[in-house]
Amino acid sequence: MRILVTGGAGFIGSHLIDRLMTQGHEVICLDNFYTGHKRNILKWLDNPYFELIRHDITEPIRLEVEQIYHLACPASPVHYQFNPVKTVKTNVLGTLNMLGLAKRVKARLLLASTSEVYGDPEIHPQTEEYRGNVNTIGIRSCYDEGKRIAETLAFDYYRQNHVEIRVARIFNTYGPRMLENDGRVVSNFVVQALRGTALTVYGDGSQTRSFCYVSDLVKGLMRLMNGEHTGPINLGNPDEYTILELAEAVQKMVNPDSKIKLEPLPEDDPRRRRPDITRAKTWLDWEPTIPLQEGLQLTIEDFRDRLASLPENRIHSDS
Ligand code: NAD
Ligand code: UDP
Ligand code: UDP
Predict the structure, then answer these.
(1) Distance 101 CA to ligand 2 centre (A)
(2) Which site from 155, 209, 215, 285 is most exposed, i.e. has the minimal number of CB atoms within 10 Å?
(3) How many whole angstroms from 102 Cα to the centroid of ligand 2?
(4) Buried b (16+ CB within 10 A) or exposed e, 248-280
């Protein structure tokens, strides 16, 4: 099959491409390299079944494909808040263009939506029926509301133009290839512990998240794409941790001497987050298999290798 992956040079996109290429598909990776990197897809560049296009999805593009995994959008609060207007354009104009493309070539499109559509949730764990508690005018809104309108566009193209859509609501995902300056919690803690600097816990660390290892997530995305259900479907790991528990786990695994430093909680930071994955289990026969300890170990090893190649980094060598 010929498959387009938007945001394919990013964290999740590049892991997805690895699996699609291994399965023998023809893959087009489309990326503007805002947070993605060529090194993530380097191993495929000479492969005749792989094509890389540097393109910004806010501009139209004509391609012939059978499936579209639409992932292009910065995912870390630091990056999506850097240029919030651009984040809105990527979600609105970018998704519109990809849906227009899917309509023209009759491709199936999977939208990478997010647990952020639930905002700071009032029900716990979050089911797909929950409509969310999102601030329309806050600093996270460019992303949260951007993804909400992206979902709306997908369902309107489905109803109006019969575009085959799949909507995944992805919960916090981590693993190798996250950027070292990504700003998200797992990469921050791992990099800080490896460098021997204090782990920055925002607020009192009692807020919770549920962390899914990237290989589990990629399997879920592919099962959703190739199954019969439109969604939305939550994809994430239901094991919930406080941020302080995560800091302590990383500390223990990398550098028991590292300190924990409390910093102010960012505005609109959700208090609790955990997916109800009943739909994914029953509709897709999918659930995560990699526990946090195992996924963290693989992530730590990847960061250790990458940081070691940078001469300016002083890395804690234990464990
Ligand atoms: P990422 O930042 O590593 O990847 C996003 C990719 O999209 C990057 O390669 C970036 O260069 C590219 N991109 C951004 N704007 C673009 C544009 N206008 N045109 C073309 N390319 C553009 O993030 P990720 O963690 O891999 O996330 C991928 C998708 O999954 C995103 O849509 C994100 O919203 C969604 N998601 C991720 C998580 C998570 O925890 N990682 C959680 C929920 C949802
Ligand atoms: N589009 C695109 N590639 C295509 C087809 C459409 O980028 O192969 C863009 C198109 O330029 C438009 C958007 O997708 O901005 C929506 O297209 P649609 O055909 O649904 O709407 P229209 O062009 O009629 O406004
Ligand atoms: N966080 C933290 N220290 C950091 C980075 C993040 O305590 O160095 C917290 C953040 O306030 C949030 C949680 O960790 O409560 C997850 O943050 P992340 O940016 O990874 O994802 P999101 O908030 O989008 O779920």
Answers:
(1) 6
(2) 285
(3) 9
(4) bebbebbbeebebeeeebeebebebbbbbbebb
Name which of 192, 235, 166, 195 is nearest 316 in CA terms.
195
Give per-residue pLDDT as tens, 128-160.
Answer: 999 999 999 999 999 999 999 999 999 999 999
| 75 C-beta closer than 6 A to ligand 1 | yes
Q: Which residues have a Cβ under 8 Å from the Cβ of 205 and sit 6 or more positions away?
A: 242, 243, 244, 247, 260, 262
Give the span between the Cα atoms of 12 and 54, in whole angstroms: 18
Which among 63, 89, 90, 103 is the best mutation to test ligand 2's pocket, defined by most ligand atoms within 8 Å of the CB?
103
SS3 state at 135: coil
Active site residues: 143
Would the pTM count as exceeding 0.85? yes
Stretches in the chain below the pLDDT threshold 70: 311-319
- What is the number of the ligand closest to the CA of 37? 1
The ligand whose atoms approach the alpha carbon of 250 most closely is 3
Tell me which amino acid residue 31 is: D
Residue 175 tokens read as 């693993």
User: In 207-263, at which residue ranges do the beta strands (DSSP E only) sit?
Assistant: 208-210, 212-213, 233-235, 240-242, 260-263
Is the Cβ–Cβ distance between 4 and 28 less than 8 Å? yes
Contact 128, 234 (CB under 8 A): yes
Structural contact between residues 30 and 57, judged by C-beta atoms closer than 8 angstroms: yes
Q: How far is the CA of 16 from the centre of ligand 2 (A)?
A: 26
Which pairing describes strands 240-242 and 208-210: parallel, antiparallel, or unpaired?
antiparallel
Nearest CA to ligand 3 atom 13: 185
CA nearest ligand 2 atom 23, residue = 100
Q: Which fold has domain 2-174+213-235?
A: Rossmann fold (3.40.50)
Amino acid, single-letter form, for residue 303: F
